[in-house]
Specification:
This protein is mainly alpha-helical. About 75% of the residues lie in helices and about 0% in strands.
């Protein structure tokens, strides 16, 4: 098996972290200009929550996917 899945996971994690940083900055900017929680702020919060759950799962997936070609796949998946 090639390193392609690991590279894809690393890229995805980096992009999600970048998106989370951008959304956090946007929330600060929006809050500086409005007093109430706008729909945009609520959407940013929801997206940030989702990303904060997804990133650790993607990081854990790196350890589940084998790097070498020695198999390590799911037996149930290979059987049928």
């Amino acid at each position: 098996m090639s390193d392609a899945p690991h590279v894809l996971l690393d890229i995805s994690i980096a992009q999600l972290k970048t998106l989370a940083s951008y959304l956090a900055e946007e929330m600060v900017t929006i809050r500086e200009h409005t007093e109430k929680a706008t729909p945009e702020v609520r959407a940013c919060k929801e997206i940030l929550l989702t990303i904060s759950v997804l990133i650790p799962k993607l990081q854990a997936a790196r350890y589940v996917i084998p790097r070498d070609g020695l198999g390590g796949g799911c037996e149930a998946c290979e059987q049928g």
